Amino acid sequence: MLCLFDGERSELSLSEIAELLEWPVPTAHRAIGTLAERGFLARNPHTKRFRLGVEVVRLAASLIAGLQLPELARPHLHALTEETGETASLAIIDGAEVLFLASSAGTFRLRVEASPGLRIPAHCSALGKCLLGQLDPEEARRRLGREPYPPGTEASARTWAELAPRLATARAEGYALSVGEYEVGMLSCAVPVPARDGLVAAINVASTTARVTPEALVEVVPKLKAAAAAIGRAQGGP
């Protein structure tokens, strides 16, 4: 049942769950009640529909802690933070979202906050564009689901026609830049990470427009690419 909830279906009604599972409604109702009681599902008080609960996040955090990639990446994320003073993170693509696996907090008082388990929309972030850009365009579009995409800011792409050129630019230049697309006043630059077993991963450095210009952040790209290559080698890659 939990697998029914993805980037395209963040909330489902009782009848929708029963239909998708081909279960009788009473059976689905009992199962939902058990999962909700244990924290795996939660009911939206406004829509009366069900969504994943906080217990799923706890289990995801446990899974992330056991993954090899975050452990290999952490020293390089810390090095990026030491060199730039900014928050550096590692993430993967999960449905239509970016899932953060590891992060090194910036040293400034005004900084971007990120932590393992955090999820943000892929279509309006540097990490998301970098990750989507590594996929076949048809697969990337399928993951994002129906249009228009959820609003981020006025700078966010809301349709595939708007987003596709940005992904093409990210692929061609080897990095993705986001300025105020996810949140006004925030900017980020991301590069792909060579990962094993088909995992699509990326790292970024994120800051605020109050301190850093887009041009200055792009100057960090060589450091990001060097860190990404080092993470790839740590996994046994070339």
Write the layout of secondary structure elements.
Blueprint: H1 14-21, H2 25-37, E1 41-43, E2 50-52, H3 54-66, H4 68-84, E3 87-94, E4 97-104, E5 119-121, H5 126-132, H6 137-144, H7 160-173, E6 176-179, E7 186-193, E8 201-208, H8 214-218, H9 221-234
Antiparallel strand pairs: 1-2, 3-4, 3-8, 4-5, 6-7, 7-8
The unreliable regions are none
Give the class from helix and strand content and strand pairing.
alpha+beta
The CATH superfamily of the largest domain is known as GAF domain
Helix content: 40-55%
The strand order across the widest sheet is 5-4-3-8-7-6
Q: What is the total tally of β strands? A: 8
What about the largest sheet? 6 strands, antiparallel
General form: globular
CATH-derived architecture of the largest domain: 2-Layer Sandwich
Q: How are helices and strands ordered from N to C? A: HHEEHHEEEHHHEEEHH
Radius of gyration: 19 Å
CATH class term of the largest domain: Alpha Beta
Q: Residue-averaged pLDDT, rounded?
A: 91
Characterize this entry briefly.
The chain has 238 residues and is an alpha+beta fold. The chain is 42% helix and 19% strand.
